[in-house]
């Protein structure tokens, strides 16, 4: 049995407390009124950010001209879909209503800045929940495929997937908060915006608060149900005299994978793609999947290495690590494949309604956007291609840290441009949120690991796994 | 590579009391024996179809592309449909030999040789379409970036059709090398068994002097692994590039980002269906039922079921996003697929590809030879229609209603396609009589872990868990 070391427990509490302080600070310092924003902008101008401000201001002039939709909207690209009329009107607006325009710009920035702490919270909340969901999917695949190498890691995977319960609850609460109008991460939830936007109106049969929350509840319920059932069967198999639990578990895994492949796509449209309600991409669901499955395998490898280093995983050898590292390597390339496919096809055809998505990212998020490709592809490609390196703990941990940071950035790039636009910054709010969820994750996962023996005893394939050498 | 211990719940992959010598004899028998009447009948039919195809191609090249049913609106129809279909079929071969090798699937060993042969023969069929659908195929060499006397006039590297040239030619060469490397020990086996000086000579040349020393085997395995590691991204990228032919365009119904992985999934789907069809016949006529067992067929069926579901998800995603996009052209493209003049093709594609593989959830059907055979054929029909629907239904009605039209294939379109099917079977039938259709060296390597005999022995004498 694993005992949660008090040092690690204290560490997780420290992370949680630091995280709460950071989150609290970012909420408290977020501007509340237009006057606050004016002050911030003046300060920025004084510090030489004038150019940036002016540019944003012009950008917003086009925005305002489009009417209430644009006024309320937080997106850089909304107006570009209607670029033609908006620009024409903008010239008119610029001349006539200089004052109004300035006011509208301030309001726009206010919305972005008000959203910033919420988005900072939402990105890691989603990221950590999807990691544990990814672990669950990987676990189901291992079971359904009757893998012979991984059963000694099953309890580790079960432990990590324990975070799915609190993680899903937190994400669900954040979605509810959106529907209750506490934040504006999803602008289609804003009735004012919908009134002035016929494109969103066309989608309201799908994008509406009630249906959105029902879907979220069903998806999360389904995932948690499988997680709890699989865990129960896995533990029951330890003491069983036959393989009945194993067989039931096998069937449940296959069923879950079908449910997962459907809900995963829809989940990514709902919780991520809909922050840009004008934009769409058919590949998006699978792209999101690639991003969190590689992070999930990385987390499995890192937790395994930690437990092994503390002497808890007797049967795990460097061949198991080698296999996990291969999956990290393979999924990193798979992620890049999907990233490139999505990016290149949209870049190549250059259709206005799609291209804005990448235009805002390349213009305003240049470093995070291309930086993540280096972190998620170039780095793991060069490091993990070597077979000997894949057996070295420190190499796997180092590559793992880069991959996890890279995929956090990936989610950051998916959410932030729509929500805070060019007001993004990785500051106290963002780091605090990550620390909070990291602390919670460690606390939940390692507590779950203490609840059952770390070796799935009577799994029919565990003997193969114990003797696994590659 | 793998441990000597194998879980008792795993079913044997070699059934009947076979020893090493039996494997050799069973694999060599079709090569060493004489062809029977049925083989000659099949070969004659295939050859006739092939020659008919040659005639149709000659007629096309001599008279012009206007002999086909394509028109001003629908510039691509059967030619590219067949091209994508054949490339797709070819993918299962690499998948079985490379991806299943990376995933250490021992069951691949009985089927990889034939799957790779199928890859090579179908890529050859595929490669003919890009050449003969050209208006001036005799200038085809202009697609190569070769220094020349037009002031060194080069190709534009921005076109996915050029990427196709590189993708297909690389794919064919790598697959051929991968296949041939694996054949060396097996050709050596045939060489060593040869009785007539002629066959001795032939297999001596083909086997490159393989003598099976430890060092050779060590390098052989290393090469296989590296090639598998290279072939896997290759197989993904090749069909991805084929999908780019459509996805990079601005045609509603073509321009969609899911096309790359969805084409790849479809390729695995149709490729496995073809492998299944061929192997169900081959295990019977070549007496290889001890090696290509029901379990092999079941596992192929499961892969067909999984990839069929992935393709199904992609269909639904496309439909949903077309609605969600709010782009009326996109919405109409899908409405037209479902309710336009080609509704029957769309319905066929949906039933064959999405509904039919779902029956594989029933163990009774996926372990039945007849059931698997029928579904495999159905899948290949469905996948042909998938490409047809994507290509033709998106082209025949797009932005300008004044250019809407229909497509009517001519006998030349059909003749070319029939010709490639004939050519494929000519090659495959010749292969099955002259090549070792099962990688005997690989099958022998799993004899002690996965044959029925050894499994029974282990069960009787108890498992020695700690033998490494």
Automatic annotation (TrEMBL), chain A:
The chain crosses the membrane at residues 10-28, 119-141, 162-186, 206-226, 254-272, 284-307, 327-347, 367-385, 392-409, 424-449. The keyword Translocase does not apply. It comes from the Bacteria. Residues 67-98 are annotated as: Disordered. Keywords: Membrane, Transmembrane, Transmembrane helix. The keyword Membrane applies. This is Quinol:cytochrome C oxidoreductase. It comes from Flavobacterium suaedae. The gene is actF.
From TrEMBL, chain B:
Its main location: membrane. The keyword Transit peptide does not apply. InterPro entries: NrfD-like (IPR005614). It comes from Flavobacterium suaedae. It is found in: Cell membrane. It is a multi-pass membrane protein. Belongs to the NrfD family. The chain crosses the membrane at residues 39-63, 83-103, 115-135, 161-183, 223-242, 262-281, 302-323, 343-362, 369-391, 411-431. Keywords: Cell membrane, Membrane, Transmembrane, Transmembrane helix. This is Molybdopterin oxidoreductase.
């Amino acid at each position: 049995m694993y005992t949660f070391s008090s040092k690690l427990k204290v560490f997780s509490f420290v992370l949680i407390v630091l995280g709460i302080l950071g989150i609290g600070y970012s909420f408290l310092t977020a501007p509340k009124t237009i006057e606050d924003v004016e002050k911030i902008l003046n300060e920025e101008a004084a510090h030489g950010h004038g150019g940036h401000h002016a540019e944003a201001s012009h950008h917003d002039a086009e925005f305002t001209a489009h009417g209430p939709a644009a006024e309320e909207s937080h997106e850089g690209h909304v107006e570009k879909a209607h670029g033609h009329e908006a620009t024409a009107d903008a010239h008119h607006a610029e001349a006539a209503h200089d004052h109004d325009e300035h006011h509208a710009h301030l309001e726009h920035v206010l919305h972005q800045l008000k959203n910033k702490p919420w988005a900072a919270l939402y990105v890691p909340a989603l990221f950590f929940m999807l990691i544990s969901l990814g672990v669950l999917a990987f676990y189901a695949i291992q079971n359904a495929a009757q893998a012979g190498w991984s059963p000694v890691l099953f309890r580790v995977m079960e432990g990590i997937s324990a975070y799915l319960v609190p993680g899903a609850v937190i994400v669900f609460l954040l979605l509810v908060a959106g529907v209750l109008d506490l934040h504006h991460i999803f602008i289609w939830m804003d009735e004012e915006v919908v009134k002035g936007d016929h494109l969103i109106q066309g989608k309201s049969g799908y994008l509406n608060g009630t249906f959105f929350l029902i879907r979220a509840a069903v998806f999360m319920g389904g995932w948690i149900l499988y997680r709890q059932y699989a865990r129960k069967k896995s533990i029951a198999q330890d003491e069983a005299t036959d393989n009945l639990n194993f067989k039931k578990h096998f069937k449940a895994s296959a069923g879950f994978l079908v449910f997962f492949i459907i809900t995963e796509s829809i989940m990514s449209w709902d919780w991520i793609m809909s922050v840009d309600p004008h934009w769409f991409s058919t590949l998006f669901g699978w792209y999101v999947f690639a991003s969190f499955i590689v992070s999930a395998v990385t987390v499995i490898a890192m937790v395994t290495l930690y437990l092994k280093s503390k002497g808890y995983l007797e049967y795990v050898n460097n061949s198991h690590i080698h296999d996990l590292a291969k999956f990290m390597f393979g999924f990193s390339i798979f992620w890049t494949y999907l990233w490139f496919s999505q990016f290149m096809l949209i870049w190549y055809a250059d259709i206005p309604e799609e291209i804005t998505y990448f235009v805002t990212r390349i213009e305003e998020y240049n470093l995070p956007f291309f930086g993540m490709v280096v972190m998620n592809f170039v780095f793991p490609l060069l490091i993990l291609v070597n077979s000997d390196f894949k057996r070295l703990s420190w190499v796997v941990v180092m590559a793992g840290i880069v991959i996890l940071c890279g995929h956090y950035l990936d989610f950051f790039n998916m959410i932030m441009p729509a929500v805070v636009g060019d007001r993004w910054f990785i500051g106290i709010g963002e780091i605090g949120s990550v620390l909070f969820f990291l602390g919670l994750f460690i606390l939940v996962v390692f507590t779950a690991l203490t609840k059952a023996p770390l070796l799935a005893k009577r799994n029919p394939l565990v003997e193969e796994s114990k003797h696994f050498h590659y | 590579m793998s441990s000597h211990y194998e879980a008792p719940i795993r079913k044997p992959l070699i059934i009947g009391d076979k020893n090493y010598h039996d494997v050799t004899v069973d694999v060599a028998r079709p090569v060493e024996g004489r062809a029977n009447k049925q083989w000659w009948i099949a070969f004659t039919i295939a050859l006739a179809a092939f020659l008919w195809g040659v005639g149709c191609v000659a007629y096309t090249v001599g008279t012009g592309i206007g002999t086909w049913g394509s028109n001003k609106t629908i510039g691509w129809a059967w030619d590219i449909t067949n091209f994508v279909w054949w490339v797709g079929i070819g993918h299962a071969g690499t998948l079985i030999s490379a991806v299943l090798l990376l995933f250490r699937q021992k069951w691949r060993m009985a089927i990889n040789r034939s799957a790779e042969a199928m890859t090579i023969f179908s890529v050859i069929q595929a490669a003919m379409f890009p050449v003969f659908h050209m208006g001036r195929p005799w200038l085809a060499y202009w697609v190569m970036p070769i220094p020349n006397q037009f002031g060194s006039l080069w190709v534009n590297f921005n076109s996915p059709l050029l990427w196709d040239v590189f993708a297909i030619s690389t794919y064919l060469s790598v697959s051929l090398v991968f296949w041939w490397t694996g054949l060396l020990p097996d050709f050596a086996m045939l060489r060593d068994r040869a009785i007539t000086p002629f066959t001795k000579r032939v297999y001596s040349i083909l086997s490159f002097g393989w003598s099976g020393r430890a060092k050779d085997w060590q390098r052989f395995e290393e090469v296989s692994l590296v090639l598998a590691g290279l072939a896997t991204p290759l197989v993904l990228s090749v069909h991805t590039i084929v999908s780019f032919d459509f996805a990079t365009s601005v045609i509603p119904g073509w321009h969609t980002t899911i096309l790359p992985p969805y084409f790849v999934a479809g390729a695995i789907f149709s490729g496995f269906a073809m492998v299944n069809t061929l192997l169900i016949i081959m295990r019977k006529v070549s007496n290889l039922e001890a090696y290509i067992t029901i379990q092999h067929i079941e596992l192929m069926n499961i892969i067909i079921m999984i990839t069929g579901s992935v393709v199904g998800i992609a269909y639904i995603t496309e439909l949903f996003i077309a609605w969600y996009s709010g782009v009326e052209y996109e919405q109409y493209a899908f409405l037209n697929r479902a309710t336009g003049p080609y509704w029957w093709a769309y319905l066929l594609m949906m039933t064959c590809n999405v509904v039919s593989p779902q029956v594989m959830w029933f163990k009774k059907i996926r372990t039945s030879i007849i059931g698997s055979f029928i579904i495999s054929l159905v899948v290949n029909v469905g996948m042909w229609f998938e490409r047809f629907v994507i290509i033709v239904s998106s082209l025949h009605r797009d932005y300008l209603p004044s250019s809407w039209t229909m497509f009517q294939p001519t006998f030349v379109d059909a003749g070319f396609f029939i010709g490639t099917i004939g050519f494929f079977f000519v090659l495959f039938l010749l292969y099955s009589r002259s090549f070792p259709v099962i990688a005997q060296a690989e099958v022998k390597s799993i004899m002690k872990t996965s044959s029925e005999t050894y499994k029974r022995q282990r069960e009787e004498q108890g498992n020695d868990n700690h033998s490494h």
